[in-house]
Design brief:
Function: Catalyzes the isomerization of citrate to isocitrate via cis-aconitate.
Domain Aconitase A/isopropylmalate dehydratase small subunit swivel: 695-824
Shape: globular
CATH architecture of the largest domain: 2-Layer Sandwich
Number of strands: 34
Oligomer: single chain
Cofactor: [4Fe-4S] cluster
Family: Belongs to the aconitase/IPM isomerase family.
Helix content: 25-40%
Largest sheet: 7 strands, mixed, barrel
CATH class of the largest domain: Alpha Beta
CATH topology of the largest domain: Aconitase, domain 3
Structural class: alpha/beta
InterPro entries: AcnA_IRP_Swivel, Acnase/IPM_dHydase_lsu_aba_1/3, Acoase/IPM_deHydtase_lsu_aba, Aconitase/3IPM_dehydase_swvl, Aconitase/IRP2, Aconitase_4Fe-4S_BS, Aconitase_4Fe-4S_dom, AconitaseA/IPMdHydase_ssu_swvl
């Protein structure tokens, strides 16, 4: 649809003689009073107004935003670009590749299937720390990474060559969000539209929750599931409610002993406590201008940990300085400044902006902190860390005798290593100390502080304890460059902190195995050991299967805990060791002086580091270049592949839409309670040999040791369907007291217990459609595309829930599954539904007439003939969603649009 300009906002901006078409915000009354983040949304709507999906009324509603109102106006946001990592990106590219074949089958040109918005994928989630503590660790880990993932990488390399506007950053280059702020982010985008150069705010959605890191650069963006990302790539808008915006005022400056990590852990605790789920957070006030860009990025990165959609900083001189440092062109920097000043997007601390809610932090009150043992918001002041550990350990090591009279449960175990090391392991031992994750490795102030602390510790003769698995995994090669230039690498290596790879590693659970003797001792004696990492997530079971308690800390504190060797440690009163003269050495004796750290940063980091690292970012190393890469407009699928397979979404698809039908004779696949999350539905993590996914791989000749994870096999729908609803904590109320991916199979006499996958296949063979019954907040948590894809491929036609999390509801429609809601105040239980009934849903066919009914009729018939009827609310909320459902899903809708152009 062509653009409508109801407000006469289209105009021209001249920047040093270059002319850009822009949509002026000052043409819309009320825009000047909006928070920064909502101004970005307003410009987006002005630019994409088409009278149907984006209307004059929506634009006016945003300009008239009432800070105190609850969100109720739906708008369509069209992000400027899409950014992906490899776990979530592979299925997106699989779908695009499948669409190319489908359009060919429909008589169209495969080359028409291309991202319409720039899409970039960074391979950063697959490197694991198998080797550590040696100079060749990085090479060894890269070798193993390619052995494990070569097939996926070949496929992505094909995609890079086959699709326009799609680029892949090969393995070993950095972490997606650090690469985004240091190189990919445009801050202000330019694009040629109908022969005219248009400028508009950079914005992005990403297939990773920490996409919000780019908020630190003044770029609006957040994490979405793969379905929304694919839709955005193909030019479809993201549906959202105009959010509440929380104003967070920053004042004062960080004190000498504290770091950016301590600031972000403090903010995380404050915002979690306040409650910001579904809201935007925006930082304002005089203190903003004294927050370095790297600190802003660290804060933005943790937005999912507070629960907010985005955590925005406005654009100012600090932003421009960072763009200059990282090698952005002078033309781009001039445009950013001119455009943001013209549009009222430049930070003006004197301007009083109205927010929905207010918080304030005086940075000078921040103290050194860690978070743990299982949530990012559980902040502990460092001075209280030992005492808090002694309270928390009782939750992990109850009943152990305190044989050593140390004031806590204790179980000292002698460990003898094959190389002759001998030591005692006890509860609280630090088994992993990892400087990891873009949250902190993008921040020179904390990375350099870690290097200086290592130098000071090495000079005093201190060493990491022999049971600690030590590692550094920077988010970009620039970190290594400035470590080398500052001369700090030898000191880090002396303490065991060798660079092991460039990727997410420990933060996403790719910490690699502990040494076998240590692992055996932990499991044999049920020791509660700990990990310390400079990451953003420390949930139970995430970091390493042997480690029960996980703590987030700044990079210098990660090293300090490696020296201490235990979480049961008081840095103020216990020495880390002794120097050559036998004097005690305390943490305060080696703690870096912030003035010196800043001097080293000033002398060690320059623009050339960024320009040289990023000039070859898409080239990859010799391994990448040596990959045997298929060519052609369509992908040559390998029938034997267990990683990348063609999904069946478009089989039998015709150019004309097929009328939607009512649902008859459906059975219940699962009856679920409240707060069933996408983690319960979507496959994640490792899986066992006796699970449907494990059996499938064994049948296809894959050894147990080569299973890898669900995440790495997301490009194979056969593995993923078998893991849908298979979470070990899922409770299906069709069964009593059973947890896991099980149901009753009513194709068999008496409905015996079966795995959800096997039952679904039997229903499919019998031609029986399926429904899922659920409680409140169905599909909350991360937006996982496979929660909807797996539901569809299992044969589920409709979900009937008490209420939905917004993104999962739209994802179900995007896959052609009907989201229905019980009448207000009713539920499966109040209606007396056991889940053993046969269901029908009528009134769906009204959608064929171009109408979207408010309700549809649901009828449930029990075996004894008892019939229960109710009007379910049809949760198709926008005209665009109705189009998607009529087409059988969002991808089918886009495909038909492309094929008929």
């Amino acid at each position: 649809m062509s653009n409508v300009d109801s407000f006469g906002a289209k105009g021209v901006l001249d920047v040093n003689g270059a002319e850009y078409e822009i949509y002026r915000l000052n043409k819309v009354e009320g825009s000047e009073n909006l928070p920064y983040s909502l101004k970005v949304l307003l410009e987006n709507l002005l630019r994409t107004e088409d009278g149907a999906n984006v209307t004059k009324e929506q634009i006016q509603a945003l300009a008239d935003w009432d800070p105190s109102a609850q969100p109720n106006t739906e708008i369509q946001f069209t992000p400027a670009r899409v950014i992906m990592q490899d776990f979530t990106g592979v299925p997106c590219v699989v779908d695009l590749a499948t669409m190319r074949e489908a359009i060919k089958d429909l008589g169209g040109d495969p080359k028409r299937v291309n991202p319409l918005a720039p899409a970039e994928l960074v391979i950063d989630h697959s490197v694991q720390i198998d080797a550590f503590g040696t100079a060749d660790a990085i090479e060894r880990n890269m070798e193993i990474e390619y052995e494990r993932n070569g097939e996926r990488y070949q496929f992505l390399r094909w995609g890079q060559g086959a699709f326009d506007d799609f680029k892949v950053v090969p393995p070993g280059m950095g972490i997606v969000h650090q690469v985004n702020i240091e190189y990919l982010a445009r801050t202000v985008m330019t694009r040629e539209v109908d022969g005219v150069n248009r400028a508009y705010p950079d914005s992005c959605v990403g297939t990773d929750s920490h996409t919000t890191m780019v908020n630190g650069l003044g770029v609006l963006g957040w994490g979405v599931g793969g379905i929304e990302a694919e839709a955005a790539m193909l030019g479809q808008p993201v549906s959202m409610l105009i959010p509440r915006v929380v104003g967070f005022k920053l004042t004062g400056e960080i004190p000498a002993g504290a770091t950016a990590t301590d600031v972000v852990l403090t903010i995380t605790e404050m915002l979690r406590d306040h409650g910001v789920v579904g809201k935007f957070v925006e930082f304002y006030g005089d203190g903003v201008s004294s927050v370095p860009l790297a600190n802003r990025a660290t804060i933005g990165n943790m937005s999912p940990e507070f629960g907010s959609t985005a955590a925005m900083f406005p654009i100012d001189e600090v932003t421009l300085d960072y763009l200059r440092l990282t090698g952005r062109s002078e033309e781009n920097i001039a445009l950013v400044e001119a455009y943001t000043k013209e549009q009222g997007l430049w930070h003006d601390p004197s301007r009083e902006i109205k927010f929905s809610e207010y918080l304030e932090l005086d940075l000078s009150t921040v103290v050194p902190s860690i978070s743990g043992p299982k949530r990012p918001q559980d902040r502990i002041e460092l001075t209280e860390a030992k005492e808090q550990f002694r309270k928390d350990i009782h939750n992990y090591a109850a009943g152990d005798e305190d044989a050593l009279s140390v004031g806590r449960p204790s179980k000292a175990v002698d460990v003898k290593m094959a190389d002759g090391r001998q030591f005692e392991l006890d509860h609280g031992a630090v088994s992993i100390a990892s400087i990891t994750s873009c949250t902190n490795t993008s921040n020179p102030s904390v990375m350099m502080a870690a290097g200086v602390l290592a130098r000071n510790a090495a000079a005093k003769g201190l060493k990491a304890k022999p049971w600690v698995k030590t590692s550094i995994a920077p988010g970009s090669k620039v970190v290594t460059d400035y470590y080398e230039k500052s001369g700090l690498i030898p000191s880090l290596e002396e303490l065991g902190f060798f660079i092991v790879g460039y990727g997410c590693t420990t933060c996403i659970g790719n910490s690699g195995p502990l040494e076998s003797e240590i692992s055996d001792a932990i499991n044999e004696h049920d020791l509660s050991v700990t990990s310390v990492l400079s990451g953003n997530r420390n949930f139970e079971g995430r970091i390493n299967p042997d480690v029960k308690m996980n703590y987030l800390a700044s990079p210098p504190l990660v090293i300090a805990y490696a020296l201490a060797g235990s979480m049961d440690f008081d840095f103020e009163n216990q020495p880390l060791g002794t120097d050559a003269d036998g004097n005690d050495v305390f943490l305060q004796d080696i703690w870096p002086d912030p003035t010196e750290v800043q001097e080293i940063i000033d002398n060690s980091i320059d623009t050339e580091m960024f320009t040289s690292s990023y000039s070859t970012i898409f080239d990859g190393d010799e391994r990448w270049q040596a990959l045997d890469t298929p060519e052609g407009d369509t992908f040559a699928w390998d029938a034997e592949s267990t990683y990348v397979r063609r999904p069946p979404y478009f089989e039998g698809m015709t150019l004309e839409t097929v009328p939607v039908t009512d649902i008859e004779g459906a059975r219940v696949l699962a009856k679920l309670g409240d707060s069933v999350t996408t983690d319960h539905i979507s496959p994640a993590g490792s899986f066992k040999s006796d699970s449907p996914a494990g059996k499938y791989l064994l049948e296809n000749g894959v050894d147990r040791k080569d299973f890898n994870s669900y995440g790495s096999r997301r490009g194979n729908h056969e593995v993923m369907i078998r893991g849908t609803f298979a979470n070990i904590r899922l409770r299906n109320q069709l069964l009593d007291g059973v947890e896991g991916g099980y149901t009753r199979d009513f194709t068999q006499e008496g409905g015996p217990q079966s795995t959800i996958y096997d039952a679904a296949m039997n229903y499919q063979e019998a031609g029986t459609p399926l429904v899922v019954l659920a409680g409140k907040e169905y599909g909350s948590g991360s937006s996982r595309d496979w929660a909807a894809k797996g539901t569809k491929l299992l044969g589920v036609r409709a979900v009937i829930a008490e209420s939905y999390e917004r993104i999962h509801r739209s994802n179900l429609i995007g896959m052609g599954v009907l989201p229905l809601q019980f009448p207000e105040g009713e539920s499966a239980d109040t209606l007396g539904l056991s889940g053993e009934e046969t269901f029908s849903v009528t009134g769906v066919t009204e959608l064929n007439e171009g109408r979207t009914p408010a309700t549809v009729k649901v009828k449930a018939e029990a075996a004894d003939g008892k019939v229960t009827e109710f009007d379910a609310v049809l949760r198709i909320d926008t005209p665009g969603e109705a189009d998607y459902y009529r087409n059988g899903g969002i991808l089918q809708y886009v495909l038909r649009q492309l094929a008929t152009k």
